[in-house]
Amino acid sequence: MGDQMTTPAERKRLNYLNADYGVKSWLLATDHKRIALLYLLSITVFFFLGGLMAVGIRLELATPAGDLVQPDTYNRLFTMHGILMIFFFLIPSIPAVFGNFLIPLMIGAKDLAFPKINLASWYVYSIGGLFTLWSLIQGGVDTGWTFYTPFSTTYSNTYVIATALGIFIVGFSSIMTGLNFIVTIHRMRAPGLTWFRLPLFIWAHYATSLIQILGTPVLAITILLVGAERLFHIGIFDPAYGGDPVLFQHLFWFYSHPAVYIMILPSMGVISEIIAAFARKRIFGYKVVAFASVTIAVLGFLVWGHHMFVSSQSPFTGVVFSFLSMLVAIPSAVKVFNWTATLFEGSVSLDTPMLYALGFIGLFTIGGLTGIMLANLGIDIHVHDTYFVVAHFHYVMVGGAIMGYLGGLHYWWPKITGRLYPVFWSKLAALVVFVGFNLTFFPQFLLGYLGMPRRYYSYPEDFQVLNVMSSAGATVLGVGYLIPMIYLVWSMRYGKRAGANPWGAVGLEWETPSPPPTFNFDETPTVDHEAYEYTSPTETRVA
Amino acid sequence: MNLWPKRFPLFPETASRLAQDVDQLYFFALLVTAVFSLLIAALIFYFIIRFRRRSEDEVGQPERAGLWLEITWSVIPLVILLFMFGWGSKVFFDIRKPPRGAIEYYVTGKQWMWKFQHPEGPREINELHVPLGQDIKLIMTSEDVIHSFYVPALRAKMDVLPGRYTTFWFNAEKAGAYRLFCAEYCGAEHSYMRGSIIVMEPDDYEEWLATRGQTTAAAKTGADLFSAQTCDTCHRSDSAAQAPILHGLFGKEEQLADGSLVLVDENYLRESILNPAAKVVAGYNALMPTYQGRLSEEDLVGLILYIKSLGGPDSADASASNQATTQASSDREE
Closest-CA residue in chain B for A331? Predict the structure, then answer.
């Protein structure tokens, strides 16, 4: 590591980016900020790979006949789209990039508690990713990302084991990250930074980490059981060997429903930060929002059965899961109300991150409310496994999680790179993403209620108009994602210098220069105020 | 609505009263969704205009209202949710619970087709003809992976699993052909695993049955199989019987060797044929060989129909226990 003790007065200030050069300094980095950038690069690759698969899907579905690709190819496309987007993009996305970069900065620490485990988590992630890519090149997998048995254990003749192994491995990176965050948040807060002075981003990541370390092992075990049955014909899930196929669904959703909250909670944390910064106001009902994150994490473990209302699970079990799923809607709704109330009497500025945050609130609200319909037994029995579900979870994961991710990217980009990006292009991109998203996924709600099942590569002709709308929207959405790629890369070299606090926001991460020095703060800050304390603007403004 | 192009429907057709119940619930949920989404959107637009930043160093006002607001916006949604939960559960039970005396058809799903067995004997593939205005109960299983029996016009679906029976019932009010989809991803040709439910006026249905020509009732096929497989060597009503008597068995509760009770339903019969040692009735030895791999799903259906044709504990109770069957079997599956 280079010499980071240079005085701020020095003309060329040393920061985490220029403190050291060369491939080795990156591949062996233990600095949480550099590891965050390694993750940023990796997940972007997977995002665009997953996006390419989506292009294939939407092209095929532009016509009712199965004409563009073979059904086997189509099945591999949607399977790999799900696997790449969920396990290799959404789950790591905000925690591994922004959580990694910001948790130490926000709590006034020099680094995460275990910098080497942090680096190891990236290697584990990369190895898991390579395994999955290898299986993709070999011919891919066609089970759907859900790996339902006995299809996955007995009937599929694709690369199930290799892909599942990739997911098994990447799970450990998720556990490592979660563990690191929990220890860091417990042990490394700056003097005076009590639990209820923490930014809500930290609370959201704390709740997420709990799910990561408690839920992921269940997925790992489930994958091993699938492997045992597929390779050694040990009867666990396939009735032909004396197993129970529904058991797999219980185990799978026990992880995979909480995994939805791994994806959305960090995004909610980002939204809290952005709303506070661009309304220049403390988040309304701070404690309620903080506890809502933890409540969602806990209740999230008790609702998996709502994926199984028509699986032959007992109707009474269905009633219990329906009830618990309704309950989880309350803390989510409360968050939306609190964010909205924060705007009241705020000083609202519509910078790019704020556009994404407001977009998030709108899309997440629709995603959440349609989730209530799906949790409702009487409606789910009709729309389960149709495009209604596809639309719903894209509203939550793309409209929610990815809008939050892009909002966060635009909010902290000046901190990460020290540069500003062009205002016009970034606002335009936010608008294009919002319009493209709705055009893509709103028609899918209608398709779902009409009865179009998901994972169909060919469909009756009267569904075509809505499918064409959706495919057209996907094109717009794709453009919306490409524009930021261009101007963000451009800004790294040509963007205006950002200064420590370009948004006039409150928070420890804005009190250190942009980009921050390797050890974040020249001296450990002491905190004597609440989070988001916007009282005296001049005090917080550091040019 | 009639002016709307037929090739661009926005809402599915409706074939049963229960489908209308689902629609009503859905409309209410849509209303709730619309009200809350528009409320949030309106507030956001109002606030970002009314409270827009007017000078570079302006900050927001400190928070004023407190806990009462948090409680209000937790309790009101909770009450609405509980109402929808109760309503939804009611609709769900109506759809899941077959009424007494429904006509029973057997369905077998396999990659990638639907096979149907009429009680009167005819078999069909990917098309099921049923009479209008009758309670129809489908007893379904799969030969391979999980499928899902989905008829959008009935607003209902049920997974079809290998190794067990699940049920689906309906009472169609309008004659016509309704789409049947497989809704659980089942491999390469999943999207072609489609069919239709053809609902006919009762007279037309009788006529249709007649055109199917000479078919043997499914229970009779089962009876023939019963002798062909020499099941009657042990399952007989004289003193040489080494196995439970099958007359009057279906729907009865039997005591097992370990003292527990088991209800004789389709799932129990299926298990006892394929894996006889699993639940042996008290007083008998586990002598029966397994028939796993030796009988097709159609054979099993025939045998079960034959055993059912031998009657229940008493005919009045038979349909009542049929009710309990669905419940008990799904409890056990859980």
Answer: B74
